Amino acid sequence: MLLALDVGNTNTTLGLYKLDGEKAELAAHWRVTSHRTQTVDEYGVFFVNLFEMHGMAPSQVTDIIIASVVPPVDSTLRQVCETYFHVEPMFVEPGIKTGMKMLIDNPTELGADRIADCIAAYERYGGPCIVVDFGTATKFEVISERGEYLGGAIAPGLGLSADALFNRAARLSRVDIKRPAKVIGTNTVAHLQSGLYFGYISLVDGIIERILAELGADPAKPPRIIASGGLARMIAADSRYIHEIDELLTLDGLRILFERNRTARPRGHAH
């Protein structure tokens, strides 16, 4: 089985794929909080517990691929893989074979999670397409009809925007981020929810609108627009442009990257 790890600043998503036969099948997946300070053993015990809750054992894992945007945890995760799974992990890093032409100034700057998103989006939905990945930051990725990565945009995530507001405004108390009944609120909680929720949707739709204009998108054949990440479902509900939701897009991209690179590296366990 293949264990795919998408390590973000806020959350870590794990996916376990059965690799038997032609088609890989997702057997289990989890979303947990990312911890920069956990030790190898703390991570190891945590992962083992997740497996056991699903009636699985770490010994079933034969391969591991990791996309991480949190460099301080990379060496810890490498040790976890070698100690608890006895597998040397593959990291998505410069030099990995993507199969996608990167038409940007410096392809090595592109985050591992963004590469995985682009690979999965083109493989599953074709091009042209736009991926909007809602994480700590919200990332916009643009892929051409021929499957080239054209570039994108990064905005502060909704949770990050809310944190900045609550931390800097002394009289505003923290509220649950959700869709309010109407835009014009009649109390402070409703005012905050309206500004955060509807304001963020306008940000997302505004950037997508400008991307479409810059692409000169054909209205008869517009690009597919796919939302991914933890807040995808909530934001997509009121977006004028997002019609596809694929919360496991990054994990699927990791699986595809693994399959494209597995012949390029020695298969087997860590010693």
TrEMBL record:
Metabolic or biological pathway, per its Swiss-Prot or TrEMBL entry: Cofactor biosynthesis; coenzyme A biosynthesis; CoA from (R)-pantothenate: step 1/5
Matches recorded under InterPro entries: ATPase_NBD (IPR043129), Type_III_PanK (IPR004619)
EC code(s) of this entry: 2.7.1.33
Residues bound to ATP: 6-13, 136
Cofactor(s) needed by this chain: NH4(+); K(+)
Keyword Hydrolase included in the entry's annotation: no
Keyword presence, Membrane: no
Broad class of the protein's primary localization: cytoplasm
Subunit note: Homodimer.
Name of the molecule in the record: Type III pantothenate kinase
Taxonomic path: Bacteria, Pseudomonadati, Acidobacteriota, Terriglobia, Terriglobales
